Automatic annotation (TrEMBL):
Protein name, per record: Beta-glucuronidase
One GO term (biological process): glucuronoside catabolic process
Glycoside hydrolase family 2 immunoglobulin-like beta-sandwich domain boundaries: 211-299
Domain of life from the UniProt record: Bacteria
PANTHER family: BETA-GLUCURONIDASE
Signal peptide start-end: 1-19
A GO MF term: carbohydrate binding
Protein source organism: Fulvivirga sediminis
Length: 606
């Protein structure tokens, strides 16, 4: 089909857009076709494909009598002719535009995407257009009809499109805008690259008319001999079945009038999930004409005083922080191979824990963490100076938090939901972050709540602590501290004493130093690998004096891109705190941390 001027077709849109539908749990296990691959794109810095010259959105004035479209037909058929997808270049989906097109490396604004696809919709089926993530704001059109919009660069969204699909030829147009704004989440300042685009998979999913929409299975936090959960169905269903063949569970459960089937199933011999034995069970959830398969691990994570207990046993979280970026394939991670490489490096470090900073990572990362035995700190990008008093900002943060928990609630590896990072203490911020902590507890009683807070110093002394009032609302005293890099020199660390007057586990969510891989100096000058190595030696000595210490996620596994790091000798827009350089070479500090974790692992085995 000729798309001589696709955007014109957009104006034949019904302005009434449809709501996003509730997320399908485990989309990859559903019947689907992938819409990944090359999509045509048009960069549109002034958004003239969306607004007319009076800055009125075509969506609004569309084909109303006497509206823009009518005028267009009458007196100006040439406008927008420039927006011609057929002759436009392509971008790979999934993938950000910054790393694919040199002139878009620092681009922030709108890019239009378009692709055609062929499908033969079947009667008795429902169809869903599913996006793994689009950074930051998406407007979605199918066959010239506007489906709706989504905000948030790291969480999935979907629209039901059953009634809009054509037999044979169909086409999708997306308006993607990664411009930063103060009132968004994250806000205008972040220490990571603002990768724009369709950065995760696009799927066309089909389900039976009455289908399994959502489900959760977990070990009862208060009774590890009971698996509890729910199945949510849409459509006429009187009962569903939950089967875990290896546990000889095959249970029929009645569906209530709201479509929910809740259950508590006694189980005698469960092998609990752990990093040492990441046991996953085949789970089959079925209704009269739908079936979903999953692999789920069962475990409990709790705190007791200053201890963290995994399956009732004290555990030390030997972690490392990581962004969703690997140096060999610039840009956002594109798939399982990318992710697996980073996780292998973490395993080489003797890690049993990873902090997936500072936003929800790809769903595939959590499934891989389940399989590889890596416990996870998951986080939403409530980062630095958010607009704490803006109600819409709070709603946005809460929606991203909810979508992350809804999407990943069946992943055994996730131990901690984090509601943010380094947010400055104030009354409005306390209300905002406290609300998010409450939201987590209302959605999930089987995981810990945390945030990466900031270290504080007792007046005039070298006694350091974390006296952020948010500590009362979360389960860990979790904070970032950069002694020896942003404050003091490594040799001054021995003057610091940490003191905590709260009976909770202490978790250091960041420490670190920059080093340019391959730059060596006997004098351990700043930016040398030896400086970073020395910092790690002295930080580990300092932190192991904290008797309540139960975990660390040093900053960071690999060097990563940041617009805040322009130093032309040492950085070139890379944050150099990685233990691995952007060429994949391990720096000297890598082996210091690896050794420390080896000793920690042996100590906890005893
Ligand atoms: C902060 C922040 C990170 C940042 C790091 C740094 O603690 O949480 O996102 O990259 O420090 O300064 O390198």
């Amino acid at each position: 089909m000729k798309y001589l001027n696709i955007l014109l077709l957009l104006f034949v849109v019904s302005t009434a857009v449809r709501a996003q539908s509730s997320l399908l749990q485990n989309p990859y296990s559903r019947d689907h076709i992938s819409l990944n691959g090359p999509w045509h794109y048009i960069a549109d810095p002034y958004e003239n494909g969306y607004y007319n010259y009076r800055r009125k959105a075509f969506d609004e004035i569309g084909n109303k009598k006497g509206g823009y479209y009518d005028n267009l037909k009458q007196n100006n058929p040439m406008s927008l002719i420039e927006y011609d997808f057929d002759h436009a270049p392509t971008l790979d989906v999934p993938g950000d535009w910054n790393s694919q097109v040199e002139k878009l490396e620092l681009y922030e604004g709108t890019v239009w995407y378009q692709r055609a696809f062929v499908v033969s919709p079947e009667k008795g089926k429902k169809y869903w257009l599913y996006f793994g993530a689009v950074n930051y704001e998406a407007h979605v059109y199918l066959n010239g009809k506007k489906l709706g919009t989504h905000k948030g660069g790291f969480t999935p969204f979907q629209f039901e499109v059953t009634d809009l699909l054509h037999e044979g030829d169909n086409f999708i147009v997306l308006k993607v805008d990664n411009a930063r704004h103060q009132d968004e989440v994250p806000t205008v300042n972040t220490d990571w690259w603002n990768y724009g685009g369709v950065t995760r998979d696009v799927l066309l999913i089909n389900t039976p008319d009455s289908y399994i929409q959502d489900y959760q299975l977990k070990l009862n936090p208060a009774n590890n001999k009971e698996i509890r959960g729910f199945v949510k169905v849409e459509g006429e269903e009187s009962e569903v079945k939950v089967a875990i063949p290896e546990l000889k569970v095959d249970k029929a459960i009645a569906v209530d009038r709201n479509g929910y089937a809740s259950f508590a199933i006694p189980v005698k011999k469960v092998v609990y999930w752990s990093p040492e034995n990441p046991k996953l069970y085949e789970v089959q959830i079925s209704s009269s004409n739908d079936m979903v398969l999953d692999k789920i691990g069962f475990r409990t994570i709790t705190t007791e005083g200053t201890d963290i207990l995994l399956n009732g046993k004290s555990v030390f979280l030997r972690g490392i922080s990581m962004h969703e970026e690997n140096p060999f394939l610039p840009g956002r991670l594109r798939g399982e191979g990318d992710i697996k490489m980073l996780f292998q490096w973490a395993k080489e470090l003797n890690c049993n824990f990873i902090r997936l900073a500072h936003y929800p990572h790809d769903e595939k990362a959590l499934k891989l963490a389940d399989e590889m035995g890596l416990m996870v700190w998951a986080e939403i990008p409530v980062y630095w100076t958010i607009s704490w008093e803006n109600e819409a900002t709070y709603k946005n943060a809460e929606a991203q938090l909810t979508d992350m928990i809804v999407r990943d609630k069946n992943r055994a590896s996730i131990m901690i939901w984090s509601v943010g990072n380094e947010t400055p203490v104030s009354e409005p911020r306390m209300k905002f972050m406290g609300g998010l902590a409450d939201k987590v507890r209302s959605l999930d009683d089987s995981r810990l709540v945390a945030a990466a807070l900031e270290v504080s110093q007792k007046e005039g002394e070298m006694v350091w602590t974390c006296d952020d009032p948010l500590v009362d609302k979360i389960d860990l005293v979790s904070f970032n501290e950069y002694a020896g890099w942003y404050w003091l020199t490594p040799s001054e660390l021995s003057k610091i004493k940490f003191e905590f007057d709260i009976d909770k586990p202490v978790f250091i969510s960041e420490f670190g130093a920059g080093a340019l891989g391959g730059f060596h100096s006997e004098d351990r000058v700043r930016w040398s690998e030896e400086y970073q190595e020395d910092l790690y030696i002295k930080q580990i000595k300092l932190l192991t004096e904290i008797k309540q210490l139960r975990g660390v996620t040093p900053w960071i596994l690999v060097d990563f891109r940041s617009p805040r790091r322009p130093h032309s000798v040492y950085q070139n827009f890379w944050n150099r705190k990685g233990l691995i350089s952007n060429t994949g070479d391990k720096k000297k500090a890598f082996f210091i941390l690896k050794d420390y974790y080896q000793k920690q692992e042996e100590a906890y085995k005893k």
